[in-house]
Design brief:
Elements lengths: L5 H13 L4 E2 L10 E3 L5 E6 L9 E6 L7 E4 L11 E5 L5 E5 L4 E4 L9 E4 L5 E4 L5 E4 L7 E2 L5 E5 L7 E6 L2 E11 L7 E5 L2 E5 L7 E9 L2 E11 L3 E9 L4 E5 L5 E7 L4 E8 L14 E4 L6 E4 L3 E3 L9 E3 L9 E10 L5 E3 L4 H9 L6 E6 L10 E6 L6 E3 L5 E8 L2 H52 L16 H7 L8 E5 L2 E7 L5 E7 L7 H13 L8 E7 L2 E7 L6 H5 L6 H6 L6 H15 L15 H10 L17 H14 L10 H9 L44
Parallel strand pairs: 24-32
Antiparallel strand pairs: 1-9, 2-3, 3-4, 4-5, 6-7, 7-8, 9-10, 10-11, 12-21, 13-20, 14-15, 15-16, 16-17, 18-19, 19-20, 21-22, 22-23, 24-25, 26-27, 28-32, 28-33, 29-31, 30-31, 30-33, 34-35, 35-36, 36-38, 37-38
Helix pairs in contact: 8-10, 9-10
Length: 731
Amino acid sequence: MDMVYIPAFILIFLISLCQSDNQLTQTKPLLPNDTLISEGGDFALGFFSPTNSSKKLYIGIWYHGIAERTVVWVANRDNPITTPSAKLAITSNSELVLSDSQGHTHWTSNTSGGAGASAVLLNSGNFVLQSPNGTEIWQSFDHPTDTILPTMRVLMSYKAQSVTRLVAWKGPGDPSTGDVSCSVDPASNFQMFIWKGTLPYFRFSLFTDNSVSGGSYQSNGISIVMYQEMINTGDELYYTYTVSGSPYVRMSFEYTGKAGLLIWNSTTSSWAVISERPNADCELYASCGPFGYCDHTEVVPSCRCLDGFELLDSLNFSRGCRRKEALKCGNKDYFITMPNMKVPDKFLHIRNRSFDQCAAECTLNCSCVAYSYANLSNVGTTGDTSRCLVWTDDPIDMEKASFLDNLMYIRLGQSAVHKKSTLLKILLPTIACLLLLTLAALVWTCKSRGKLRKKRVQKRRMLEYLSSTDEPGGKKIEFPFISFENIVTATDNFSHCNMIGKGGFGKVYKGLLEGTNEVAVKRLSKSSRQGAEEFRNEVVLIAKLQHKNLVRLLGCCIHEDEKLLVYEYMPNKSLDYFLFGTFTFKNFNTVGAFSVKSDTYSFGVLLLEIVSGIKISSPNHMMDFPNLIVYAWNLWKDDKIEDLVDSSVKENCPLDEVSRCIHIGLLCVQDSPNCRPLMSAVVFMLENKTTPLLIPIQPVYFARRDARPENAADDRVLSVNDMSLTVLEAR
């Protein structure tokens, strides 16, 4: 029974031996199989071998929480251990020493102090050597290799020690010191360079001391917020940044010469590039030469000359550009503005200047070729809130991009061509504006006159047309024309409150004309397709027809695009009762015009409505059928005529007469006009019961009136106050 627990005891013992914490003490050195892990578990420190050599051992710091080992700091990068045994220990005088089994020292922190010091790996990735009371003796953040981690301080200037210089690996899998490095400009603390050897390879944009900036970055669904600071304490100037939104973010410098901001994508298990520079050939230092700049506003960034300059050598842009006009100093020179620029190298910084003072520094100095001014009060800087830069040498290494916000003022020599071009720049727009205004006025005048003339001619022709007669030798019809102003007054400017109906190509308003009783004014819609012929038909025919049951036409009005008809008002019933709500021929609904035998169709509908007591489009009493025609045809086909007859007259009407009326009605409402009988034939069939009847064709018009096709001609309710025509033939 006791033997069962022996393997478990051994396993627990081995686990305790393999466990590692985040501290290193004098009594506990770090051996090749040991690893220090930060308290939060983000970073690890230990021995590692690069991918290109398993016989070389290095002490380094890498990300512990990701599968891909990414080393961010190496201690003995130029002095690897080649023996199988080594250790990292703290000496009695508080010094970190990396040595091999033969006692050779491969790296040391070069520190000294009392006994009892310890080293701890923080969760920021910083390896700190500290005294027993917690005083910092040494830290890896002050000695970076090729990576800048969040909260790390990159020294730009320091009175007591040299500034930070980051050096890329020599190549893939080779952490030794490479040829590419990054450090501050020795001539100015305002900019950083990437170097290849001792030559500048790429120059970053200027930064400002005592400033804070922030921004959000996204890549493949991952977003971070990054804050960057430049701190000037008087004794030192350093750069640092912090990040929220992701635990694994780093700035690294590659052996290829590129600097990148990278974020770990846990979904793809790889590093995603947020930002990278340089990313175009023309961004490389001085690649566009003096007075040339890299233009990022193009699809493919390329070199261009500043305005007022021309290419010196078309085969070699690195030679730069030359002036088109030589400088003459004094008032004969002028400055052009270049926005969105990265200011060039080799500038002179003049502190505490206003814009005018900065401009004067260059204008009054004949050797000054350009200047740039920036107000830094809105970027969180303290102290000097201005930045005045002037150039006395040829400007070199410039860029233009939308994400840059510097203004450059370039000095150019004035010439007769410039004076003439300046005058032309003023005169040409002025003359062009005057010509455009004159042309617009002429076009508007001509169009207005043409419209007015057209309306007058149209009105005259309409009046002549309305006064004409249809028949040769006939008598002209006389009726009054009512002024548009009187109609507007009578209807209270066509008030919505006075509208009593709409349809029949327009709306109908109730009004009170001076000296008359109430009238109904039919205002035809301007968008209506009812033309002069239809308007004349309505006016002339209603004027001809005088009947006690027909509404009387009192007059009409034609005013510009307006066509109005004035009827007598029917006080006993609203006008919409007579004008609206009845059946309209289906072709009229879709194409807006009547066809031959459309009155036959309408008579057939009327006949079916009389027999059934059902409106053509009534949703009631027809079960699942779309309209009365389809409903009647199906009952006739199934020999169920008695189901269609109105119950109020069913018992008093002979079924054979009712059946014949339904049969004739179905013949009248056939879809094809050629299949419908003439009205003369309809009358003959009704009067002669023995006349044989044809078989009606099944109707194909299955759509309801409220379910019309999208391209139907009109959605308005149509009036019966329109005439239908039939072709008359002798009986």
